[in-house]
Amino acid sequence: MRPDMPVDHTTEAERLLRTAAQYPEDHEPLFLQAAAHLELAGDRARAAGLYDTLLAASPDHPHLVKALKAANLWEYGHEAEARAIIDGLRTAAPLDPAPWEIVAETLEHHDELEEAHDSFTSALNLLLTPGEEVPYATHTLLIGRHRVRRLLGLDHDPWDALADSVHPSSVGLDELHDPKRLWSLGSDNPAELQAEIARLRAELGSYRTALSRPFPVAVLHWPAPELRELLAAYPTLATEYPSHEAHLTQLETSLRDLAATGTPNLGIVTATVPSYEAFAASEQSSPSNADLLPQYATTLAARGRATPWPPPRNATCWCASGRPYRECHGAG
Predict the structure, then answer these.
(1) CB atoms inside a 10 Å sphere around CB 150
(2) pTM of the predicted model, to two decimals?
């Protein structure tokens, strides 16, 4: 379903839940999408039930599910429970930007600006190191923190300068986040209204740019046991994967090359042989066809299976070595 198409949200939620029953390996992202549609339909109690079902099943992204649950609960009158979940998330300090963004924006939406500012700041201090590359997934944290600081009337600091540098619009963040804009919307001055229209168009353009890349540009990662099984079954793919060590090195190199060309929103998808064989069958092709590999990676990313790259600060390496990324494939 394209995001710009009209939809009956309850019907779409039901479709997603049926799909989740057919593809249990993808039930988490499908349940999250279904819950979002139920929230839009006003059925927040049922959405909360989906979040509870996910949490009971030990999801891959428990902090994200808890953050979404808290945001939903607060919207339909369960503020105390939502605050308790948010406090727990802030204490847990997840290394994924998404839960922090949801928590901070939920607090901002309910006029808890000081707490929102603290959440944005805590996330950036945890996930970013000054002077290093800014991961795409943290851009919205920087921009959200800038917005809240403008509402609080705080002076610029280094994080605000960094937010300006990653902001894609031709209209600067100071102008977009100016609290006085609200007053201009009630103006009867044509020049002021025209200026506001220009700012809104710039903001909408940035939003459309973000939507144009709904899932990461992903690179395929084969864990060592899966790669051994793959090459045993399809030995012609050894030209693509001469060794597991070479595969890991090439994966990191490819991502760095993409980043160097300015490609944002990069990710890694983990492959399995049964999933790859099922994909090949769906394409009416042989798994030994190396041309299927990038298509398989894109399909996994579209199904919500991608892990953002580079890993957040202090996170373990994507290769599952257990070592910090900086001391493993992130070294050098």
Answers:
(1) 20
(2) 0.71
